[in-house]
Design a protein that fits this description.
Oligomer: heterotrimer
Distance between the termini of chain B: 64 Å
Radius of gyration of chain B: 21 Å
Number of helices of chain B: 7
Shape of chain B: elongated
Number of domains of chain B: 2
Strand content of chain C: under 5%
Chains: A mainly alpha (624), B mainly alpha (215), C mainly alpha (93)
Distance between the termini of chain C: 47 Å
Shape of chain C: flat
CATH topology of the largest domain in chain B: Four Helix Bundle (Hemerythrin (Met), subunit A)
Order of helices and strands of chain B: HHHHHHH
Largest interface: A-B, 66 and 56 residues
Structural class of chain C: mainly alpha
Structural class of chain B: mainly alpha
Largest sheet of chain C: none
Number of strands of chain C: 0
Largest sheet of chain B: none
Number of domains of chain C: 2
Helix content of chain B: over 70%
Chain lengths: 624, 215, 93
């Protein structure tokens, strides 16, 4: 193996990062916990950017015929708001919890490929910066988060905005794909002894299914984006209708990705809720195995419903019927999950912590998102409410009521483990109620506006059409939501400094992450745990619940290992990502820079493969 | 690093990037790299399926010629297909040598494989030149040209990347730094190469043979 | 679980597979020029290339000898790819 090889090659002689704290230790880190924290703060910054974009749009729409921001900027705002929130805020925030908690939940010391994990993060960060740099380089895309041609073609959309959008998504997409491979391998192959697949915590299950969705859907949007990029940069004719093109090819490719993407966002949220509800109900998750199979079924059927986004393009009644039915079928496994969560609560000794309140908020609001989804899945009524604010209302109930509520629940629930400090419960609850009220004020009126006929993606509306009141309420709600986010952020930041130190197990938890100190030591587990139950920690705390052999395994873990070897940092993941990042600017401005960037990335890959392991020894007992 | 720490490294269950992960216990008893490579290949299937679907939809939609049935060159493409298939054979022999521990032989087989890839590329680029020169077909001529050059171009890019990947392994084999514990690294490079070959089998049939057959 | 490395194909096996790949390619090209096959030509060509595909996947890519999980991943990806590709083609054309 590399570290005991006597002769050192050129690549092995390259400098390796040694810093254990400070700037370079974070830049070169391959520790899944540090990468999780990097994902966390980066996605919060992007979340705030996306939130400001949303508030600007709400201000513009507060009353009729306003010109606070013009139509051009409005189009750019809804494009960048959606792109930022989906790809740069919510997905990376879930990735933050994947990173920090998946190894802890399955009893591992790191992910399967620590360096690839760092690479994923850098691709996300640099892709996000690339995308947002278009604000300063001629303005971002205004072609919507779907970027349909032919509006996205050079002829109708000159300037570099759409190019920035396409390449930015390709860059972050590489990072997402790589983390998809990484987490499937981690969950399948890095489990602690005894952690069988049917003992995996639900969050690990939803992470794995989500990763499969990423692995199979991201290549498809990659092709869609590349095709329209070729049209823009090199003058190919793929989406030129005068050359005989059919634009629905792009629509299909986009939504073959786009619909699984919804589940990529929502399944982790379901996993988080499935962790939180049992802890604060003091009951095991109701119907665990049914939950597992429902998750798989949602993932699987999610690949067969993409055309419900195209009901109005004229695919014909047969195709529309098939996809309407397939879409309605997804309500079945989702409904099963809903009843299982209610079953978990039923008869439990419920504690209303802030985390629990957000999780319960998820149940209520995601239900509305799901039901409005079923309404949209009926092709005839879809033709009526398609492209109205009803759709906007629907998917915000899924994205915010579903995903964001559960992610904020996770911040309150897992934050103490990540940062070693308890969050303020009172502020947490205030944050919940303001968000709950503000959210419903913002988005429920949109359902009504949609039925009244207000089209989406239009920067203003005429007076006297019955839209004024609902829009005014919606804007006030949006401001309340903004206030709530500020409260949560204030809570987070002040608790990090002045919060009570978090014990190892503050919530009387059930799973492995609560068996180790908060914050978690570098090596996670001083000794790899042996798992004998689905609710391992709970059973250890209450051995009488276990039917037989449990207690002795816990005793065997008393003595820590004397020396644990952990992977050390590397410059290569960042170098490869930087090559692609700089090269991408070259593609738009100066081709030699593009080829230079590709060359740097390829050399970085060779260095990555040949530099050796840079292993470090950590001694849990005491000094290094 | 001391011997003690090396055995401790063994306890880092299946630390994937270490070349020796092959010998570590993993939950499924299979190496992380191979699992990840197969996932990557499954993912790439979706990538090429999207490209091929686009090709199949667009191929006869051009409003001006040349159309596919006017330009396909079966004899030339058959030769290049044969060369690529044979490069897969030498690749398989290289992986087999790696598993037997004959690490020097790996380099020779891989060199043959890279040569096969090169032969394939030379013929394919000649065909591109031929299409552009004799039929006036570029990727801006018509929609068939666009989708044909993009589909075959992405395949070529995969071949080129594979050749670079194999070169790194072949060079370490010739330098003597490739060891038996690196066999899994040769294995996954081989999987990638075979996959690129398999994709060409599909493209050869759908883009060339079916067109010649008038389907 | 380490059944993967018990049975390994020999050099001879690989050469045989290579030979059959060659034969199948020749058959594919020949089939185009056989008039009698015209009505079923598309099916014949697709069938022959599926055979080639399977030969490479099973022997060169070791799926026949390796963990079933690999086959599962690959098959899942291929089946999904073919189904979605066919569906999109049928819907549009």
């Amino acid at each position: 193996m590399a570290t005991i090889t006597v002769e050192r090659s050129f690549w092995q002689a390259l400098p390796k990062p040694k810093a254990e704290s400070g700037f370079w230790s974070w830049v070169t880190t391959v520790d899944h916990k540090r990468i999780g924290i990097l994902y966390f703060w980066t996605s919060i910054v992007f979340f705030l950017i996306g939130g400001v974009e949303a508030l600007l749009m709400r201000l513009q729409l507060a009353g009729p015929n306003q010109t606070i921001i013009g139509p051009d900027l409005f189009n750019q705002l809804f494009t960048m708001h959606a792109t930022t929130m989906i790809f740069l805020a919510i997905m990376p925030l879930t990735a933050s919890f994947f990173n920090y908690f998946i190894p802890l939940l399955i009893g591992a010391r790191d992910v399967a490929f620590p360096k690839l994990n760092a690479f994923s993060y850098w691709m996300f960060l640099l892709g996000g910066i690339f995308l947002n740099s278009s604000w300063f380089l001629g303005g971002p895309s205004d072609a919507g988060w779907f970027g349909y041609p032919n509006y996205s073609l050079k002829e109708y959309n000159p300037g570099l905005g759409v190019d920035f959008w396409i390449i930015g998504l390709l860059l972050t997409g590489i990072g997402t794909l790589v983390s998809g491979f990484n987490f499937i391998v981690t969950i399948l192959n890095m489990r602690a002894p005894g952690m069988s697949l049917m003992r995996l915590p639900m969050f690990a299950w939803t992470t794995m299914v989500t990763s499969f969705l990423i692995v199979f859907s991201f290549p498809v949007i990659t092709v869609a984006l590349l095709l329209s990029l070729f049209d823009r940069l090199f003058g190919t004719l793929l989406f030129d209708i005068f050359a005989g093109s059919d634009l629905t090819v792009y629509h299909h490719l986009f939504w073959v990705f786009g619909h699984p993407e919804v589940y990529i966002i929502v399944l982790p949220a379901m996993g988080i809720v499935s962790e939180i509800l049992p802890v604060f109900s003091r009951k095991p998750l109701f119907g665990y195995s049914v939950m597992v199979f429902s998750t798989m079924l949602i993932g699987f059927v999610g690949f067969g419903v993409w055309s419900h986004h195209l009901f109005t393009v004229g695919m014909g009644p047969v195709v529309n019927t098939v996809f309407a039915l397939a879409t309605m079928i997804i309500a079945v496994p989702t409904g099963i999950k809903m009843f299982n969560w209610i079953g978990t609560l039923y008869g439990g000794r419920i504690r209303f912590t802030a985390a629990m309140m957000y999780a319960l908020g998820f149940l209520a609001l995601f239900l509305i998102g799901g039901l409005t989804g079923v309404m949209l899945s009926a092709a005839p009524s879809n033709a009526q409410i398609h492209h109205t604010y009803f759709v906007v209302g629907h998917f915000h109930y899924v994205m915010i009521g579903g995903a964001l509520f559960s992610l904020i629940a996770a911040i309150h629930y897992w934050g103490p483990k990540m940062f070693g400090r308890m969050l303020d419960e009172r502020l947490g609850k205030i944050g919940f109620w303001t968000l709950f009220v503000g959210f419903n004020m913002t988005f429920f009126p949109m359902n009504i506006l949609g039925v009244l006929g207000m089209p989406r993606r239009i920067y203003t509306y005429a007076a006297g059409m019955g839209f004024e009141t609902w829009n005014a309420i919606s804007t006030v709600g949006a401001l309340i939501m903004g206030l709530s986010i500020l409260i949560t952020l204030y809570n987070l930041l002040t608790s990090l400094r002045r919060g009570e130190p978090a014990p190892a197990d503050p919530w009387d938890g059930r799973t492995l992450e609560w068996t180790i100190p908060s914050p978690v030591p570098e090596y996670n587990f001083a000794r790899i745990p042996h798992v004998s139950s689905r609710d391992e920690l709970w059973v250890r705390k209450h051995p009488q619940l276990a039917h037989g052999a449990v207690a002795e395994t816990a005793a065997a873990e008393e003595a820590p290992e004397e020396a644990i070897v952990m992977p050390g940092g590397s410059y290569m993941p960042l170098l490869v990502a930087l090559g692609l990042f700089v090269g991408s600017y070259g593609l738009l401005y100066y081709m030699p820079v593009f080829w230079g960037g590709i060359a740097v990335s390829l050399l970085g890959l060779v260095g990555w493969a040949l530099e050796g392991d840079n292993l470090r020894i950590v001694r849990p007992g005491g000094s290094h | 690093m001391s011997q003690a720490s090396v055995t401790a490294a063994g306890r880092l269950a299946g630390h994937g990037e270490a070349a020796h992960a092959h010998h570590h216990p993993t939950s499924l008893g299979i190496p992380n790299q191979k699992l990840a490579t197969w996932l990557f290949i499954a993912s790439e299937s979706m990538f090429f399926a999207s490209l091929i679907t686009t090709y199949m939809v667009f191929r006869y939609r051009s409003v001006v010629g040349p159309h596919p049935d006017e330009v396909v060159n079966i004899p030339l493409t058959t030769v290049s297909t044969f060369i690529l298939l044979m490069s897969s054979l030498t690749m398989a022999l290289g992986v087999s040598a790696a598993h037997r521990g004959e690490m020097r032989a790996v380099g020779k087989y891989l060199a043959l494989t890279i040569l096969g890839g090169l032969g394939f590329l030379v013929i394919q680029f000649y065909e591109w030149w031929h299409l552009a020169h004799d039929f006036g077909l570029t990727w801006r001529t018509n929609i068939f040209g666009s989708v044909f050059y993009i589909l075959t171009g992405f395949h070529k890019a995969h071949v080129i990347f594979g050749m670079l990947w194999l070169s790194v392994i072949a060079i370490s084999s010739f330098r003597g730094t490739l060891r038996k514990e690196h066999a899994v690294n040769v294995d996954v490079a081989g999987l990638y190469w075979h996959f690129v070959d398999v994709v060409w089998i599909v493209i050869f049939t759908l883009v060339f043979l079916l067109t010649e057959a008038g389907v | 679980m380490e059944k993967a490395h018990q049975v390994q194909p020999t050099t001879r096996d690989y050469l045989k597979v290579g030979f059959w790949l060659f034969v199948l390619t020749v058959l594919e090209v020949a089939a185009i020029y056989i008039e009698a096959l015209r009505p079923a030509l598309a099916a014949v060509l697709v069938g022959l290339s599926v055979l080639k595909f399977l030969l490479v996947a099973m022997f060169f890519m070791h799926l026949k000898y390796d963990s079933r999980i690999y086959t599962g991943f690959f098959a899942f990806g291929m089946i999904l790819a073919v189904l979605i590709g066919l569906a999109v083609t049928v819907i549009i054309l």
